[in-house]
Amino acid sequence: MLRKRIVIALVALIVCPTLMFAAGTVSGKVTFTGTPVKPKPIDMSKEPSCAKEHATPVTTETVVTGPNNALENVVVYISAGANDEGQVPPQAVTFEQKGCQYLPHVLVMHTNQELKVVNDDQTSHNIHPLAKVNREWNKSQPPGTPPISEKYEKAEFISVKCNVHPWMHGWFAVLNTSHYDVSKGDGGFKLPNLPPGKYTITAWHEDYGTQTADVTITGNETKDVDFTFKAKAY
Amino acid sequence: MAKLFAVTIVVIAILSAIPIVMNYWGPPEDISTHGHGIDEQLKDTMWEAGISFLASQLILAAFIWQYSGRAKGAQLKTFPGGAKGLVVAAFVLVGTEILALGVIGQKAWAAVYFAPPNANAMTIQAQAGQFAFYFRYPGPDGKFGTPHADKIDEGNQNFFGLDPENDVDARDDIVSGELAVPVNKPISMLMHSKDVGHSFYVRELRLQQDFVPGLDLTVHFTATKVGKYEIVCTQLCGLGHYNMKAYLNVLSQDDFDKWMKDKASQ
Questions:
Q1: Does B245 reside within a domain?
Q2: Residue A95 lies in a domain
Q3: Which residues of B touch A46 (CB under 8 A)?
Q4: Which B residues 172-201 touch A at CB under 8 Å?
Q5: A161 CB near a chain B CB, below 8 Å?
Q6: Which of A94, A90, A151, A102 lies closest to A126, judged by CA?
Q7: Which end of chain B is more exposed for a tag (fewer CB within 10 A), N or C?
Q8: Number of domains within chain A
Q9: Could you read off the pLDDT of A45-101 as tens digits, one per residue?
Q10: Residue of A nearest to B133 (CA)
Q11: Does residue B97 belong to any structural domain of this protein?
Q12: Residue B39 carries which DSSP code?
């Protein structure tokens, strides 16, 4: 009897930690079907200090595609089941104004995570995130001034514009979780470190909309989830 | 002391007149067909005002020189007719001056504002918005698509709020950040503001017209020399007003056709 109990205890000791530290991954690719709009070149001639930074004019980034119909700049994140709403990462995320463009085009952050806005250009910018749920603000930033520090308290996808340069456009994705990725290059994304459980994955694209998928992680496996968006002709 | 003051007045008056008479800081080259009348008007005004200015300063200096030292018991000299006479004289003089300038100058004004655009003028639409100018050409179909204010999406380069998906006329419209025109071609420019007051000003064209929110205005001009000229906003419109400009690109007809083709393919 005692031996049986010892065996059970030993097995439990070995299995439990394994289960406790089990972490699965959701990965996949984001692609599109159909023919997307051609990116349009941006005329920066009214701001010569920025125009001269680009050998060829930059193009609009509303739809950025990669090889094999890959769709970039899609925010893929856990919208349900993540349980890390309160865990705000201590490091800041940076939004850069360079060559009169916003880099990156889509910046993801956790609610209450510090956002730093940097001006690397020779001209003044006036960043204006058009928040509807959070507080809407705009701030002027002459060249050489320190970064702007802000944070958002509620989850929201916020369209960002520059009041001085109408062609500048970007996005803030403020999420309740740190389990997110942004599709790049080949459209691939990876969400690692997922404890066993039921999750809803959401994929958001600024023009093509939102899609969801449900996934269950049981241990250390990698689940493959792909998203396909329909391109718009105009 | 007073005599020194009189001399100083004369010196200042002459020194001020020299740069104007010598045309040190003249306006830039006139590349328009109507600008000559405006330049003439400016010259006439300068001459007339300049002569009046010099005359008044010299007369003032003369009176100061002559009548400043007062001997005991000397009487104050007054203008013939007293104060009333002075006012009437000023009224007549200044009034004639302004009336004359107005009558002479009306032709210059009328050439821009009261003459209709040339029958074969090319129509271009200009939109001013904080803080850039954008220009729209109707494209091969010769028709402008309908603009929708709620569809304006500047991050996506849709500055006029066009709806090519549902509006066939909008599909071939060409939108540009620079105003390209063929040389010697009459242009009729439709103007409207996206938001607040702005103004379109090209020095070399001798043309300036405010964009008034809510009004659809038209100006017309013909550029006579190939080159790149600055269009600046000359109506305070907000924090980016200092930075609000575009370029007028006057091209030969061939270069303009190439430019249009290049834009249409984008």
A1: yes
A2: yes
A3: 132-133, 177, 243-246
A4: 176-178
A5: yes
A6: A102
A7: N
A8: 2
A9: 899 999 999 999 999 999 999 999 999 999 999 999 998 999 999 999 999 999 999
A10: A46
A11: yes
A12: H
